[in-house]
Predict the 3D structure of the following.
Amino acid sequence: MMNSVKYYGWLLLLLFPMLTLVACGDDDGGVSSGSAEWRGSSSVGEAEGSAAIQITGPLGAAWEAEIDPDASWCSFRINDPDARTAEGTVRASSLDNILDVYYTRNDSSQERTARISFRFVGGEPQTLILRQHTSSATDDPYVEGHAGAWAELPARAESDDYVYVSHFASLGGRSVRNYSYCYDPALHVARWVAYPLHAVYRGTVDRTNEFGYDPKIDYSWQPDLGAGSYRGSYDRGHQLPSADRTATRELNVQTFYATNMTPQLDRLNQDMWARLESKVRTQMCSDTLYVVTGCYYASTSTATTDRNGMSCPVPTNYFKVLLRTRSGQSGKRIADCSADELRAIGFWVDQRSYGDIEPPASVCRSVAEIEELTGFTFFPNLSEAAAEAVKSQNAPAQWGIQ
């Protein structure tokens, strides 16, 4: 994927025009603003089905869409492969402004993509990407070969108990990674969630609150959180925060999958932990901030339940590890950086209320300490010469923590 090139290379890919459309001008019939984006995920399974595009814009604005000729497996009408163009106008209700894209079953051995061109009449075109897996696809980032390219990915744990998944989304006319995770079916949580944090992932999309199952793994492994939170005083605590993914609706919806949730005390989730998440966002940089957030179980004796009564053990601790370049604009891959060009830190948080306070220096740890506590190996593509020095850093003030 894109991060196998220099940072500037992948940033150029991501910084293609986003899904917000700007008009050509009133004289040629263009609209002042509008957008079209996937309502759910642009990454779908091998079975036949449909994906929905949400259209927004000024009332009465005319639009048109066309499916790329090479994507003969997609159409705008069910069981009608010739329906490859569509047009309409923006109506008052958002439910009347949905364009469905129907797709056939993918029986081939290759993943396939479809490009859908959309534009408001008189406006600039945009491209939306639909990505369909094969029956054998796993989106396991290690199987797919991204482990050496994505700086945020921890080393794969040698355990048959975990399931590894990556989520992708359409951004700027390309399919980009959203986040990856290591899922524990027995505990119904992701042990860690790894993701890049950069300004291109953030925008003005509202929090969707579309809690639901993750379509990529067995629903029986996941807590049922669509109708409400865990029982008791536990929130549906995000590991990848919703506020980190506001560039498109699709990116945000994926953060509400049950696989990104853990039972987190409400007064931790809404207070100190939320402030820690905000503090992390201030560390975004042009070179990208790499983040792993996870939960830890010193024991599984405390449990809550989901909405169906399934027992969900409560984590005893949470952690984050962060890595970025010092300058923030080196244009270099993490693997090519020396120790003095990088900075890193970890956070170790108890499952308790700290009060509505800023993150204290007492929760700060080195990445090496978090590795020792959790058993995971973080940022494995650091050079051998840099790894020890970078992972031993623990300088809270460098990260805005006093």
